[in-house]
Write a structure and sequence with these properties.
alpha+beta, 5 helices, four-stranded antiparallel sheet
Length: about 150
């Protein structure tokens, strides 16, 4: 199953990154499909990724030393590693119950460095910055480029 994991760049660029579990994530769930009946697979995947980007802001608020960029990892994990979220705030919410290694990562999505000021403000609770970030698309990186992602 394809999942979208909110992470921080320092966590991902660790010398031996394994994204430990359990951790919240997002996926194209039956609830998401039911909530957005007019969308197609690409639209549902974009919605799940956007929700993970929102959750990345919460991670940044708790990790003041992390680079101020939203980061979402798209990974393919066994279905058995994905559980329903206990109290989903959005219909794409799931919980990944297995660790995720780089060999399972399909791609990484990161804000462009110019977004760092808005990301920092949004992580601190600035709603205007959150709205500006909603207008920004995350940049796509291949898993082989993880070490080369600019830190803002």
């Amino acid at each position: 199953m394809r999942v979208y994991l909110p992470v921080t760049l320092d966590e991902l660029q660790d010398p031996s990154p394994v994204l430990l579990a359990p951790r919240p994530a997002h996926a194209v769930t039956p609830a998401l499909r039911a909530a957005w009946t007019d969308e197609d697979e690409e639209g549902w995947e974009y919605a799940a990724q956007a929700s993970a980007a929102d959750d990345s802001l919460a991670l940044l608020a708790a990790r003041p030393d992390a680079p101020r960029l939203r980061v979402v990892v798209a990974a393919d994990v066994p279905d058995a590693c994905v559980a329903a979220a206990s109290d989903p705030a959005v219909p794409s919410a799931v919980e990944v119950v297995c660790g995720v290694g780089l060999d399972q990562v399909a791609s990484v999505h990161v804000d462009e460095p110019e977004a760092a000021a808005d990301v920092a403000s949004a992580a601190a609770g600035d709603e205007a910055a959150v709205e500006r970030l909603e207008e920004r698309d995350l940049l796509w990186y291949d898993v082989t480029e993880v070490r080369d992602i600019p830190r803002g």
